[in-house]
Specification:
single chain; about 240 residues; alpha/beta; seven-stranded parallel β-sheet; 6 helices; 7 strands; about 15% strand
Length: about 240
């Protein structure tokens, strides 16, 4: 079990960092990729673009070409303006194409280990639209189609691919629409934490989840099951 290795993109902060730290605590060897040059206890960090094949190949080499898990957490938040083609190109490149490139480049190593991949999606896109950033919504919706496709591709080799879809998570990534501990739009009444999302990712890459693939695990405190009418009554 201590020989398990993982690559985590976007590992310097937020959900990526929490995931890397959780895996390290579980005895994994973790190679983190981030554009920010960071030093995190227990992780080997590689500064670079998570969608760059040369960076990904260097990460695979550092793992010894055995890759038990790939977690694609790198991303940029929705901003806008919605009608900016430059914004569209940047978000699609970082939030969707980089995940495809990571899967494509890491695939032989994942097949060799019978490994697992988790893509960090969002409830924005598959469930909700975005006034600010159709690009973000399109990218996150696209991740689910990407994961399902690679789950089918990987099934004969025992490679599993899943998505976690967070809602409002208390990190620098999420805009503060309401106080973190008083979210009337969330049935559980608060924002989630990065570690709560990381716990789900940790399960999905573990052999305990070996019969789970092509699935989307929503981690949103029940936000997507709350009707607009009920949300309004909670604010009253």
């Amino acid at each position: 079990m201590n020989d398990r290795s993982a690559i985590v993109t976007g590992a310097a902060a937020g959900i990526g960092r929490a995931t890397g730290e959780r895996l390290v605590a579980g005895g994994w060897r973790v190679l983190g990729i981030d554009r920010v040059d960071a030093s995190i206890a227990g992780m080997t960090m590689l500064a670079g673009d998570a969608g760059d094949p040369s960076v990904l190949e260097a990460a695979i080499d550092a793992c010894g070409e055995r890759l038990d898990a790939l977690v694609c957490s790198a991303g940029i938040p929705p901003s806008g303006p919605w009608d900016s083609r430059e914004h569209w190109d940047e978000v699609i490149a970082v939030d969707l194409t980089a995940a495809y490139e990571a899967l494509r480049t890491c695939w032989p190593a994942l097949v060799g280990a019978g490994g697992s991949a988790v893509l960090v999606g969002s409830i924005v896109g598959p469930v909700e639209g975005s006034l600010r950033s159709p690009a973000y919504a399109a990218a996150k919706a696209g991740l689910e189609g990407l994961a399902r496709s690679f789950a089918v591709i990987g099934a004969p080799d025992g490679v599993r691919v899943n998505v976690v879809a967070p809602g409002a998570i208390d990190t620098d990534f999420d805009e503060r629409l309401l106080p973190a501990d008083r979210r009337t739009d969330v049935p559980l009444g608060r924002m989630g934490t990065a570690d709560e999302v990381a716990a789900v990712i940790g399960f999905l890459v573990d052999p305990a989840a070996r019969y789970v693939t092509g699935a989307v695990w929503t981690v949103d405190g029940g936000r997507t099951i709350l009707s607009a009418a009920d949300a309004g009554s909670r604010r009253a």
